[in-house]
């Protein structure tokens, strides 16, 4: 990023999707090598409008629609990255990332390694993920654990507009591949003051959302507001809950988690992915390895279930963790 | 056609090299594409005004009437669907009005013993083969009752992840041959979907393994906001068949008699061991992508204008009236019957109960694993607790 | 399976690959709906010879080569399963399963669910996995965690010839999709007496490999022999190690694991997959949730690292857990 | 051709339906395929016996000599590779002897500013563009020194997962245009690999986005044990280009002058903004799949017999000698020079140190994550401990 004559200061109140759009706009303006592409990101500005107006402003060479083929979207991005561009691909929904998994697992994370850094891939792959807004089948998947298990790629999941902007700008400026999952539920549901200009939030640092001495709740993305609500309810009952927003799964900020669990002695982990082998299990494993002597209760995972995410409006919230379920888990570790 | 409102072609040329573009650019590509859509290399039976251009291709009168009935059923679903959506009685669904000939004419060439792999937009095809309207409504109402696939049909649930149905159709088709039947599998895909790798793999597998498949590629001009000409440099998608050594046919997708004719040929070839066929139906998505989409973001009224005159229902209607196969009176009876059928189905859909919480864990495996049993218990405990809490609140 | 006139009895001494071949042969003979297909499985009998002779014996209709395209291999298998066949697909190496992940994640595990059991997919996908035999790049991957995180599919990984046969026959006869990963390292390195005929080992039951009171070592597939060696060394030092061969990851035999950990109070988990978010983390999470009060030491994971599996003969064993590393972990939990 | 030893076509017909197969069966498909391989629809410059059939396509004499030199370098690598493998001085590698014209003639049309995406079998192409022999030997010795890609070349590491290179080449090509250069990207794939979805997606993307790509499809008759005719029903893979609206060319893949000619045309078209081309080089895998493979399991001697007479090195050699561009003496000098170069490279490869344990965690990210730092520490601790244990044992 090149410094502007008078760096803008102050904040602007915006939604998460606006903050993402702002970050993309800033990146495009600051760095000619940044290119944005995907399905419907051009004239239409994306199905969630995250790239709204960017083609008109930065041109069809910088922001363009591709044919409908996710493997080639990622594969092409890899090639662009090899050749010195900074590709920022949008996958329309995280559940449609699957056709691209071969390119991702076979190459995206391996390129630096297998060329001993002759090549590296400063690619960002953005995808809306998660539930809570009554989307059709396969539009609410949370596949972050697959990416977290893929060596050589980073995984970032913001939970606030400011973080979305700051983390996305860091991701675009990161020399290595970054997955950037955006909780659909949060796109427009919250507004906050977001610093203007080239604001960065470092990748790899968790955020302490609330402080408390009794229970640590670890979560990210769309689950942070859920955990916050549960923490607020617990506070009413005199239970001090420390909510940690992980922000980045890879690299994970283990220190913040361990420090908190060492203090509280109780850990609840919340994600909306299926139960078996989700990223929640990794968090639990790290705690079990590094903080077991502090634990005063079993670790509890509050997650989706081992079934596909239900597209049924009436029962969607049975699957997706809600504040009640998290509150129950908090009680459970307190009562142990 | 107003080029300035259409999304511009995604051609990432650096300004410095712009002058190198001696090759046909995108204006030319677009012109070529547009020309190809109107060209005479499509099979056509009825002209847009309903006059017969290929007498030899005309199906039996009864078949023509049945095609009209099915197109009307489909259109009725689509039209009522819009109303129900606006009334909050149906969820977001992808309309297909204007594409009835492409869906009905093709599916009508099957029997109930054949397989149908529809996409989210192919309600018309599914209804033609007998998928109950009530189940279809339930599906777009986000009810699990839309997932109860009838036992006497081989109509698969609507495919959401694009192109995945194509290789699966190959497998179903092969399985039929292995089991000694003459049944075939038909799969639908869109112009956008035909860019996916699964499209290629499936056509190649079907050719190599001689699978009795009929692949319908509905070229309706758009993949959400991306026009076909930006999806590919090819102007005739049926020619992709050549690359697999299988027959490819391009047909007027707004002419139900033509789509029926070419599909029946393909189905017969497949049944008799002749292998797969690719059929490109050239049609148009006159409607938005879904009922919640606003196409004015990416296309102009002018883009769609020409297509009203090509409407498939009107076209066949004119023919049937002209040919004396239908009268205004007999049509009125038909429409009344269709409306009655639909309202009965709607009432049935209305009667489906809401799903219960633990239902979301049903049907994952034949036998629930210990993990699923435990998770079910969690759900039951939570919701029983909530219900009683709710009850006591209400009682208090 | 239909009963034969005189059911064969006794055992035969064979390698794991021979046992797999035997199971496939028996399944083909017993059930007309069983079909085997994949790359090079026909005349050539597979790159590891697991399907050797089966095409000659059962015909080209039952055992056949496909074009080179994994997504279509799995997709076609799904279609065959819908139409009443029992497809048994071979993916040449687990690292080449990636192009098929869309078919797997989008459909294989969801079909029963989204048709309320109108359709179910009795499909088996076999793939050689793991390292230890100096294969080229991407030929030693261990992607089992991805499948374990996919609702609706089972995951089976045998560690002995007899188990390979018995579990494979169970998998083929299971009404639902089963991934069957075969440790390349074990294909020919051990022989044992394998029951003849239609021998079955139930899916979902772990195997107690050795008994001991001090430490539980949980592992599967290629890591079982590694753990056994470490256990033998520990026994010399008077440490009683209970080695549990999980056999099936989904469904996991939690009871056997918890019962053992409740007894020993110490858990070491061994896999050769990358560290972050591997299936080892799920095992650790389950223990941390259900047996924490019994733990006398942190859980220790002995795994591959967060880098691609190295194709470098000279240092391959640095990455892939070896008995020394497991023994060290056993000491570590003992000394805690 | 002895049909009984070739793998039979994978045609899963149920016996009950066998008689339905009125369509061309696989015997016919095979005959059609075989005929197509010899047909005159391939571009050819030299006949198999070395006589010139297209005078107008002959490159400059210096170019012809350079092509010969590069083919000889490639063949030398392949031949010495076999010996080194048997001596245990090289790991398992995929030989390419007999395919030199297909690899060298194509790659020679590039400059060092262009991109090359080779598969595991394309050592000949990579060497032509300048990949150091020593690095290539190191790669097949399973040494990380084979992963040190030269900074002055845009030759990518050999692609192992099949077809993945194709979409990546599109990206590199587009990036060059975006950056205002005239550089192109060339990617290789096999007949087998062309069945993968990535092949289709890449060709379609390249067409739609007008990427300066040259796609080489080496049809060498086999994908391990599966013959091309079982891989697809198509007999001419270059026709797949039509489905993307891009040019497709079929060329005699054992004729270096022809492969060079058509590739240079394609490269020039791409450089000047004309977009991508698909080139099918018709050649043959006379060697086993890898040096460890035993092809007698799936094909007979007779299968490969005809191809010796088409050997690309002999063919060009005869032409150069006949045309007086080379003498036996000048050739001997060339061969000596090539042998010297190779042995020097071998010595260099021998000098590469073995990797150290912690190296396996190098180059995962620009900055190792805390997790990787910890894992590195684990490795160092273990191996330092082991080393000292070893040392003390040795000292004792
Ligand atoms: C694999 C995948 N990628 C993206 C989507 C999102 N999506 C839904 S419809 C659509 C456009 C499809 O266009 P086309 O194939 O032409 O079918 P049409 O909608 O015109 O019927 C897209 C991109 C999806 N459903 N699946
Ligand atoms: C995605 C993937 N699937 C399977 C393999 C295993 N494999 C290696 S080479 C090969 C055959 C390739 O045939 P072809 O593309 O014709 O290339 P050739 O070996 O003839 O050069 C296979 C199946 C692989 N490397 N990658
Ligand atoms: Mg469309
Ligand atoms: Mg080949």
How does this structure look, described?
- Chain A has twelve helices and 14 strands.
- With 336 residues, chain A is of the alpha/beta class.
- Chain A has two domains: 14-195, 3-Layer(aba) Sandwich (Rossmann fold); 207-335, 3-Layer(aba) Sandwich (Rossmann fold).
- In chain A, the strands form three sheets. Chain A has a seven-stranded mixed sheet with strand order 3-2-4-5-7-6-12, with helices on both faces.
- In chain A, helix 2 (54-58) links the parallel strand 2 (34-38) and strand 3.
- The N and C termini of chain A lie far apart (52 Å).
- Chain B is an alpha/beta fold and 396 residues long.
- Chain B folds into two domains: 23-351, Rossmann fold, CATH 3.40.50.970; 360-395.
- In chain B, the strands form two sheets. A five-stranded parallel sheet of chain B has the order 1-2-3-7-6, sandwiched between helices. A two-stranded antiparallel ribbon of chain B has the order 4-5.
- The radius of gyration of chain B is 23 Å and the shape is globular.
- The chains are: A alpha/beta (336), B alpha/beta (396).
- At the A-C interface, helix 4, helix 6 and helix 10 of A face helix 4, helix 6 and helix 10 of C.
- The complex binds thiamine diphosphate (2 copies) and magnesium ion (2 copies).
- Residues 190-192, 220, 222-223, 285 of chain B line the site of one magnesium ion.
- Chains A, C: InterPro entries: THDP-binding (IPR029061), Transketo_C/PFOR_II (IPR009014), Transketolase-like_Pyr-bd (IPR005475), Transketolase_C (IPR033248).
- Chains A, C: It holds the Pfam family Transketolase_C.
- Chains A, C: Keywords: Oxidoreductase, Thiamine pyrophosphate.
């Amino acid at each position: 990023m090149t410094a502007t004559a008078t760096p803008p200061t102050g904040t602007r109140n915006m939604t998460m999707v606006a903050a993402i759009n702002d970050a993309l706009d800033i990146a495009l303006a600051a760095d000619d090598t940044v290119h944005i592409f995907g399905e419907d990101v051009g004239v239409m500005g994306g199905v969630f409008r995250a790239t709204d107006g960017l083609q008109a402003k930065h041109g069809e060479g910088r922001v363009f629609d591709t044919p409908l083929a996710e493997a080639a979207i990622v594969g092409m991005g890899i090639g662009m990255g090899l050749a010195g561009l900074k590709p920022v691909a949008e996958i329309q929904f995280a559940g449609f990332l699957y056709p691209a998994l071969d390119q991702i697992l076979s190459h995206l994370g391996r390129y630096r390694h297998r060329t001993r850094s002759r090549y590296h891939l400063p690619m960002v792959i953005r995808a809306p993920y998660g539930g809570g807004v009554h989307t059709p089948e396969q539009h609410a998947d949370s596949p972050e654990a697959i990416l977290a298990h893929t060596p050589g790629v980073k995984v970032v999941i913001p939970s606030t507009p400011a973080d979305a902007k700051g983390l996305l700008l860091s991701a675009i400026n990161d020399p290595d591949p970054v997955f950037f999952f955006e909780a659909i539920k949060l796109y427009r549901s919250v507004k906050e003051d977001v610093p203007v200009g080239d604001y960065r939030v470092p990748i790899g640092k968790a955020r302490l959302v609330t402080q408390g001495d009794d229970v640590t709740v670890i979560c990210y993305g769309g689950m942070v507001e859920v955990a916050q609500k549960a923490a607020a309810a617990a506070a009413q009952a005199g239970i001090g809950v420390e909510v940690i927003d992980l922000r980045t799964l890879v690299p994970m900020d283990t220190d913040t988690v361990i420090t908190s669990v060492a203090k509280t002695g109780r850990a609840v982990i919340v994600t909306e992915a299926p139960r078996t082998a989700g990223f929640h299990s990794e968090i639990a494993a790290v705690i079990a390895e590094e903080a077991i002597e502090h634990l005063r209760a079993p670790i509890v995972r509050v997650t989706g279930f081992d079934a596909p995410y239900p597209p049924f409006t009436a029962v969607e919230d049975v699957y997706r963790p809600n504040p009640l379920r998290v509150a129950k888990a908090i009680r459970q570790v307190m009562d142990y | 056609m107003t080029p300035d409102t259409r999304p511009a072609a995604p051609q990432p040329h650096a300004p410095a090299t712009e002058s190198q573009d001696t090759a046909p650019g995108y204006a030319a590509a677009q012109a070529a594409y547009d020309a190809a859509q109107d060209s005479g290399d499509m099979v056509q039976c009825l002209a847009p005004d309903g006059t017969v251009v290929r007498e030899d291709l005309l199906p039996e009168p009864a078949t023509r009437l049945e095609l009209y009935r099915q197109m009307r059923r489909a259109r009725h679903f689509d039209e009522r669907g819009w109303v129900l959506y606006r009334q909050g009685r149906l969820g977001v669904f992808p309309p297909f009005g204007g594409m009835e000939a492409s869906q009905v004419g093709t599916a009508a060439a099957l029997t109930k013993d054949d397989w149908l792999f529809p996409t989210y937009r192919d309600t018309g095809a599914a209804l033609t083969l007998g998928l109950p309207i009530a189940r279809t409504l339930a599906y777009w109402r986000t009810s699990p009752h839309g997932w109860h696939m009838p036992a006497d049909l081989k109509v698969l649930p609507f495919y959401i992840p694009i192109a995945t149905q194509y290789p699966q159709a190959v497998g179903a088709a092969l399985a039929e041959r292995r089991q000694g039947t003459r049944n075939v599998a038909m799969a639908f895909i869109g112009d956008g979907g035909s860019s996916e790798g699964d499209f290629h793999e499936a056509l190649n597998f079907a050719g190599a393994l001689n699978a009795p498949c009929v692949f319908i590629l509905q070229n309706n001009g758009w993949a959400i906001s991306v026009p076909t000409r930006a999806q590919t440099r090819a102007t005739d998608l049926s020619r992709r068949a050549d690359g697999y050594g299988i027959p490819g046919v391009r047909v007027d997708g707004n002419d139900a008699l033509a789509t029926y004719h070419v599909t029946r040929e393909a189905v017969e070839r497949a049944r008799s061991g002749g292998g797969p066929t690719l059929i490109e139906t050239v049609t148009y998505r006159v409607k938005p992508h879904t009922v919640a989409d606003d196409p004015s973001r990416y296309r102009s009224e002018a883009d769609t204008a020409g297509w009203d005159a090509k409407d498939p229902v009107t076209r066949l209607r004119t023919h049937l009236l002209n040919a004396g196969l239908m009268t205004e009176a007999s049509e009125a009876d038909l429409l009344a019957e269709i409306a009655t059928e639909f309202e009965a189905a709607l009432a049935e859909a209305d009667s489906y109960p809401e799903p219960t919480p633990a239902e979301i864990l049903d049907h994952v495996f034949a036998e629930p694993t210990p993990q699923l049993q435990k998770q079910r218990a969690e759900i039951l405990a939570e919701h029983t607790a909530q219900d009683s809490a709710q009850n006591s609140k209400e009682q208090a």
